[in-house]
């Protein structure tokens, strides 16, 4: 049994994390910290947890009382947190912010499909970004085979929960509903971690990644459409992908066209391939709050604690 604490407990990712950990057979939640909600029942903020927990948000916390800490605050807060708090020597950390995804300060980048064995030995894990997860899972097998040798073109659509719980002009329902918009074209912050991992698998990778992110009019999920020029046949490409993900418990290569509903509310990633002339089209889909955030965080928690990788994560998608 691992005793866990959560910092930044009021956001979407913390809510999903709590939903998973409350039902995890080897996790005991010691505290959920939120200075703005201290004293309130957790289920008052995360209303889907009504009847599942009597936890209340804590104003204070004791890092020495836990085995694993989940950091669920916004980007930039993790470094500030460790400037203000002393890290116990034996504490394990899963950080959901982007602060240490460059693998600085002893953190390991937490994409299990790329670094499973390294993560098992790690004490500090930097959980990947949601877009970064969807895009890397689409490209990892090609990089591992040394076949990423042309420009990578990507368009990916994300749900509104990817923007976080704090309301904004582009997350307001009346604006987002029945609407689409592009943002951060060719300059999204997740490109750095994507290139980092691909280059580790294929050291000579220096092609352009042209990425256009799109805001979708749905709450959760990412559907990514990537393509490259390649001489690989569809059978060769399919074999590369299926061999690469043969031991991955959550990433699946489909022989049929895929859709977003196959992954929403699960920790799955599904991928399908098509060949059009010299272009290989790779479709990938994940739930941005689960495989793209909290589900993957629990996957990393399982790995660093020595539990089965899929423990507490066998979630089923809706039939409709």
UniProtKB/TrEMBL annotation:
GO terms for molecular function: N-acetyl-gamma-glutamyl-phosphate reductase activity; NAD binding; NADP+ binding. Residues 3-122 form the Semialdehyde dehydrogenase NAD-binding domain. Pathway: Amino-acid biosynthesis; L-arginine biosynthesis; N(2)-acetyl-L-ornithine from L-glutamate: step 3/4. Its EC number is 1.2.1.38. The active site is at residue 130. GO terms for cellular component: cytoplasm. SMART domains: Semialdhyde_dh. It catalyses: N-acetyl-L-glutamate 5-semialdehyde + phosphate + NADP(+) = N-acetyl-L-glutamyl 5-phosphate + NADPH + H(+). GO terms for biological process: L-arginine biosynthetic process. PROSITE patterns: ARGC (PS01224). It is an enzyme of class 1 (oxidoreductase). It holds the Pfam family Semialdhyde_dhC_1. It is found in: Cytoplasm. Keywords: Amino-acid biosynthesis, Arginine biosynthesis, Cytoplasm, NADP, Oxidoreductase. InterPro entries: AGPR, AGPR_AS, AGPR_dimerisation_dom, AGPR_type-1, NAD(P)-bd_dom_sf, Semialdehyde_DH_NAD-bd. Signal peptide: none annotated. NCBIfam families: argC. Catalyzes the NADPH-dependent reduction of N-acetyl-5-glutamyl phosphate to yield N-acetyl-L-glutamate 5-semialdehyde. Belongs to the NAGSA dehydrogenase family. Type 1 subfamily. This is N-acetyl-gamma-glutamyl-phosphate reductase.
């Amino acid at each position: 049994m691992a005793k866990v604490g959560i910092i930044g407990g009021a956001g979407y990712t913390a809510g999903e994390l709590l939903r998973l950990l409350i039902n995890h057979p080897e996790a005991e939640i010691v505290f959920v910290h939120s200075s703005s909600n201290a004293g309130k029942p957790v289920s008052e903020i995360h209303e889907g947890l009504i009847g599942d927990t009597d936890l209340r948000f804590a104003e204070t916390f004791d890092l020495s009382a836990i085995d694993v800490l989940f950091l669920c605050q916004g980007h930039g807060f993790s470094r500030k947190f460790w400037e203000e708090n002393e890290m116990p020597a034996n504490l394990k950390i899963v950080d959901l912010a982007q602060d240490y995804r460059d693998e600085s300060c002893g953190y390991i980048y937490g994409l299990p499909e790329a670094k499973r064995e390294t993560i098992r030995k790690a004490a500090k894990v930097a959980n990947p970004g949601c877009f970064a997860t969807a895009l890397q899972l689409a490209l990892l097998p090609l990089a591992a085979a040394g076949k990423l040798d042309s420009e990578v073109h990507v368009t990916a659509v994300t749900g509104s929960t990817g923007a976080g719980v704090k309301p904004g002009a582009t997350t307001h329902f009346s604006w987002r509903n029945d609407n689409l918009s592009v943002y951060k074209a060719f300059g999204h912050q997740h490109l750095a971690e994507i290139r980092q991992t691909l280059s580790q698998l294929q050291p000579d990778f220096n092609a352009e990644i042209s990425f256009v992110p799109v805001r979708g009019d749905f709450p959760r999920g990412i559907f990514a459409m990537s393509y490259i020029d390649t001489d690989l046949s569809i059978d060769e490409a399919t074999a590369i992908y299926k061999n690469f993900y043969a031991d991955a418990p959550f990433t699946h290569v489909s022989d049929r066209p895929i859709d977003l509903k196959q992954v929403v509310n699960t920790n799955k990633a599904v991928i399908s391939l098509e060949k059009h002339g010299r272009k290989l089209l790779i479709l990938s889909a994940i739930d941005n709050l689960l495989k793209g955030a909290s589900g993957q965080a629990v996957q990393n928690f399982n790995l660093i604690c020595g539990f089965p990788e899929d423990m507490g994560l066998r979630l089923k998608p809706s039939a409709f």
